[in-house]
Amino acid sequence: MTRDAIKDLILEIIEDIDEDADFDTLESDKPLRDQLDLDSMDFLDIVMELRKRHKLQIPEEDYPELATLDSCVNYLDPLLKDA
Amino acid sequence: MPVSFSKASLENKYDVIIIGSGLGGLTSANRLAYCGYKVLLLEYHTQLGGLATWFKRKGHIFDVSLHGFPYGMVKTCKKYWNKEIMNSIVQLKKIVFDNPQFHLETTFDRLDFTEKLNKQFKIPASTIDAFFSRVAGMNFYDDQSMTTRELFEEFFPGRSDVHRLLMEPISYANGSTLDDPAITYGIVFSNFMNKGVFTFEGGTDKLIGMMTDELEKNGVTICTSAKVDRVVIDSGIVRGVEVQGKTIECGSVVSNSGITNTIYNLAGKDAFSDEFMAKADKIRVNNSSCQVYMGIKKEDKIDDIGDLLFTSTAPEFDSSELCDFTTRSKTFSVYYPKTRPGHDRYTIVASMNSNFADWDNLSEEEYKKEKQNLIDRALVDLDRYLPGAKEKMDWVEAATPKTFNRYTLHTQGTSFGTKFEGLDISRKIFKEVSGLFHVGSVGIIMSGWLGAINYGVIVSNDVDAYMRSIA
Ligand SMILES: Cc1cc2nc3c(=O)[nH]c(=O)nc-3n(C[C@H](O)[C@H](O)[C@H](O)COP(=O)(O)OP(=O)(O)OC[C@H]3O[C@@H](n4cnc5c(N)ncnc54)[C@H](O)[C@@H]3O)c2cc1C
User: How does DSSP assign B229-272, residue by residue?
Assistant: First the structure.
């Protein structure tokens, strides 16, 4: 998966969680949590969705890696290379 | 339709078996079905819902635990159940406090509390703001050495009236006291202060009915009258459960039975390490409850005195007074026809916190007498708000900690699970016995309707990760 595709995947998952999420003003290096009104349950949903769709196991200690869109892509890039 | 265990034709093996259909168990079942697992849900009772329950008498429908939950339920129901369930959530706008220290009516949100604290209690706006920011920033993994009492003393020293306003509702909501960790207070209080108190229009029966439909749509097999006697564990790995002498195999078990029941009765303490058991032995359960259910005759009406009334004639707030056998503190939940549109009846439920031990040691005769005394006290107290209401009633009945214990099997009839230490044990149980998970009220923060549902999601994530790791 390309970095852009990973980015789209994350945004698609977030859109499923919150259909009113506004991506137009999203800054990819700032915490998603502050910009999109996501709470810790929403991050758990992202983890579960990634496991469901791509069989990815993200250990709890790695959850902070999902903080910003950029950090998500950086973290997932090696894991989804062959996806 | 859920079928009774003795009439069910079950398969020999499921991916996941859920023991208990409280809100935590129901939600785990739904999430795991969504993840693609073959799920069997086994409930001891004839009705699903656990403490989220109701019963019918003489044309009345009484709700047991529908007094109010935070706004967070809207998002949670939308994400983990469905939009129809979400759309039935409505606000309770009139919350009343009446005690010797103050009387007020509030929407129970940050804006209105700020105003009340400032104008009525004369607390400086900056202090109120600082308090709200502090509690809003609390996380469950933060340091838990500070107690709620210390938190209140820091912001509102010597102001027992303010402490009462802030604590009384939360003590009723989850059984916590001033001596519990401040973070448990902060998390639950902030949830409520977000937008106020909400309820489920249509009543508990409608909610559980909608959840049952959703589960069946998602392929969950549901059995009632199915008391699980034992979780079958072999070489540290879950193999299945035993019900009425029959073993059903599975990859994982999610127990929605109380955490203490799960450890001591279902798995058995031999399944765990000494280190784990040393911690488990220290788990304290929360208090239980007493309730008095009052039904108004079909042709009669009562005035709007508010949706939820926190009442007390005790001079000051005291966590232990709230649990006294003859406590002077109780809440009244008033259900107007708007609760169940179309049903058009009025009911009132008085709720008190209560200790199991006080009721457990009574002879049958004393128990009956004390139950009547409990009813009489509730009627006297209610008369202050609804004079003459007693004459309009055609049904009055009481429940005690013994009732809650019999109904849910929970240790000491606990209404709100365990104190804070239970959370860690519940979260780690699968590290002791592979494939054994616990869901349900623990740690104060994971209790209540919202807490139990969200915890159901959190635990499903652990189960899914485990199931995939062994696949
Ligand atoms: C009087 C009262 C008032 C409340 N008011 C509110 C309120 O207004 N708002 C709010 O948010 N919360 C309220 N609560 C709390 C809320 O109801 C609970 O926290 C929540 O419903 C608990 O869900 P749970 O998942 O922990 O399971 P529980 O509801 O505790 O259910 C556990 C289920 O497991 C079943 N079970 C146990 N052992 C076995 C076994 N061996 N085999 C098969 N089945 C088994 C039981 O029969 C039960 O159905 C109230 C609670 C009480 C008691």
Answer: EEEEEETTEEEEEEETTEEEEEEEEEE-S-HHHIIIIII-GGGS
